[in-house]
Amino acid sequence: xxQKPSIDERLVELQQAKVLEILGQAAATGLQNTLELAMxxxxxxxxxxxxxxxANTLPQPLACEEGCHFxxxxxxxxxxxxxxxxxxxxxxxxxxxxxxxLSAALQxxxxxxxxKSKKDLARARPPCPLLKDRKCSAYAARPLVCRAMHxxxxxxxxxxxxxxxxxxxxxxxxxxxxxxxxxxxxLAGCRAGGCQAAPLExxxxxxxxxxxxxxxxxxxxxxxxxxxxxRPKAIKKQR
Length: 239
Hints:
Helix content: 55-70%
Strand order of the largest sheet: 1-4
Number of strands: 4
Distance between the termini: 37 Å
Oligomer: single chain
Shape: globular
Structural class: mainly alpha
C-alpha cells in the first residue's frame, strides 16, 4: 500500500488563503466563484508539480497511458469543493440518459460498499462509477486524489489489480504529497470560511449533489449538504 502522504504546511496555507479569498466573492456571485475553489486547487497542484519536476529530472518516465484503468478501481475521497465541481460537470456535460446511468452506477457503488471496511474495498477493487469503457467519463473534473495517481510500472498495476494485491506499484511520492497538501488546504479554507469541510466518498457526494435542492447555495450558507465519509450498514435508495 502507499505510504500516507506528507503534508507541506506552506502549500496548505497558500491554498487556504485562496479559498477564503474566493469564498468572500462566492457569497455574492454564487456558482461560478464556487467552482473556482476546486479549479484553483487543480491549477495550483499542476503548477507546483511542474515546478518540482522542472527542477528535478525524473529518473524514470511515467507508465500511465490512456485506457489504463487499474488505478480507477479504488475508493475515491474528495473535498466538498471538488464534489461541487464534479457534480456541476456531470450536470453540464452529460446527456439525460448518461445522468440516469451515472445515478444508477453511484447507487450500485454505495450498495457494494455497505458494511465493508476500507481494506475490504481495497481488495475488492470496485470500479469508479465514473469509469466507462476503461476511461474516466469526467476526466477534466477529476479530483486531486485522481490527479495524483500514477505509476512507473504498468505491468505491476495490472498484476496488483488481478491478484487483489494491496502492495503499491512504484510511484513518485512528491506528486501525492503535493496533491494531499493542497487538498488539506481546501478543507482548512472551507472550515475557516464556515462551510462544511470534511473528506467525502465520491459516490455518496455525487448523489448528494445531484439529488438535493440548491446544493451550492446551501453549502455556501454553511449547511451540511454532503453525507460525511462513513461505511454504512445499509443504503437507502435515492429517488
